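**User:**
Make up any protein.

**Assistant:**
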Amino acid sequence: MIIDKNFFKQTHSFFKDISKEYLLPNLGKLKNDEIVEKLDKSLVTKFDLIIENELIQFFNEKGFFNIISEENNSDLFEYDEYLTIDPIDGTRNFVNGINKVVIMVSFIKNRKSIFSIIYNPIQNDFYYSFNDEIFKNHDQLVLKNYYQHTGFLGLNAKEYFKNEISKYIEKKRSRSIGYDVIEILEGDRTFMTIYGSKIWDLFPAMSFLNNLNFNTNLDNFNFDFDILDKKIIFYAKI
């Protein structure tokens, strides 16, 4: 596998094509038989499955074979190097016609993020973290300065994270972890909480937040499976 600017440009082009074919035309227009509620009460649609299979094939052709993805829920055969895929982060938004959906990918090696991608199909904005830098549409992103905390805390989170965040401007969560990260990158949000998460949305988000030098209640930014059940907060340094 070769990970360079050309790789990211090809990936961006592919994400744009599959979004134009499957995601954008069906946003908020699904039929009942195209939606299934999973055991955890989350939703999966016909197009989650189609897009995921397209992504797996694309990354296989690029040399990535050890893949864990949301809908296939693959069993990794090797835990030191793997790719994660979330075909539609914000599936409930997709079903309800809310323009807050993203595609997320991360490549993890030896508990470190090599690269992560968050793609906003609505705006055709392609964000990726690589070599400790963050890029938007292939130009290095100018990182924002944060002066006042903005974000969302539920009732339990207000108590649980009171030592990290006290005064803040409330901003509702988007119900897409990846979209919340985009809002952080654009300076519209300064913190987010994640718990009960899955590897395919937590690890891509962590990659960007690590490169933003965010604080967290985690001991470190190692990409370990044992953090998946923890209550986590990531927040900017004000």
Remarks:
- Residues 150-235 form one domain.
- The mean pLDDT is 93.
